[in-house]
Amino acid sequence: MSHNQPPPSPGPYGGGQPPNPYGAPQQPGYGYPPQGQPHVPPQGQPGYGYPPQGGPAGQPWPQTPPPPPSRGLGKGAVIGIVAGSLAVLTVVGLGVAALLGGPEGTEKLTTPQSLLGGDYERAEDSAQLEQQRNILQDELPSDGTAVVAQYLKGGSIEKGALILSGAWGDIDSDPEDMRKDALDGMVQGQPGSQVVQEQTDYEINGDTLSCQLVKAGQGLANMYMPACAWADNSTMAVVAVVSADYTSEDSVDLKEFSETVGQVKQETVKPK
User: Fold this and answer.
1) For the CA atoms of the chain, what is the radius of gyration?
2) Sign of the four-CA dihedral 56, 61, 63, 64
3) Element (H, E) at 86
4) What would the pLDDT profile of 248-270 be if each residue is shown by its tens digit?
5) Which secondary-structure segment (H or E) carries 221?
6) Which domains does the chain have, with CATH numbers?
């Protein structure tokens, strides 16, 4: 190099700089040029819109607007909604404390290993499940037994979850009031949620189920959670399902869901 030649400017491939370990920045200004080199002009001027050699290709010039954030239910959203719903449905059951102590019930609420023909598999008891069950149990009289369980669709939380929260014992209260109070508690215990399909009663297998559809959200994702409650002199429970498929009100058939919960009741309520 001649003594009178100016120092080389950084070329379009970075002037020999090592590749950025985090990949090429999408826009100039996130990093700084090595000391002694000329300042890199802003993006949009010719010659400087290319990534360092070996780095991933940047956005083409002129730059296109980024796509809007996804509003779908990804894994994180499903997990967050399931966790929140589990806590809410456990709180719903706290009212059972005042409902137990009547005539001796003849049935109990169980949590089999799988539900609905194997479509849902019971999740292992986590610290959160234990905590929620203990909270509910502490509110029950001595003859009451709390039941809180979470089932994963196909064994994967990404596909959805079924939440069962309730109790069994000797219950002496109006079944209609119990069902209504349980479903009302879902919305009261979950800020920002709203009922989009009001409570409706369905007769399933000789039992009355009260069901509603609640709209809730996790970050940018909106979800629609159907829930049904039943109550008699032995058992009471709320069953709700969180699914990545439930992204609009029209995606949930509440009557069909009530039939699903009717089957859950048959599979979980057994003679003492």
Assistant:
1) 28
2) negative
3) helix 75-92
4) 999 999 999 999 999 999 999 99
5) strand 221-231
6) 20-62 (no CATH), 75-271 (3.40.1000)
Nearest 5°: phi and psi at 86?
A: -60, -45
CA-based nearest residue to 87, from 198, 264, 242: 242
Within 13 Å and on the Cβ side, how many CA atoms surround 233?
6
DSSP assignment letter at 171: B
Transcribe 97-118 into DSSP letters. GGTBSSSPP-EEE---SEETTT
Residue 229: per-residue pLDDT: 93
Q: What average pLDDT is seen over the chain? A: 73
Residue type, 15: G
User: Is residue 82 pLDDT above 90, yes or no?
Assistant: no
Query: What amino acid occupies position 156?
Result: S
Q: Which amino acid does the sequence have at 180? A: K
What the block records as the tokens of 93 is: 């059951």
What pLDDT was estimated at residue 64? Answer: 43
Alpha-carbon gap, residue 87 to 128, rounded angstroms: 9
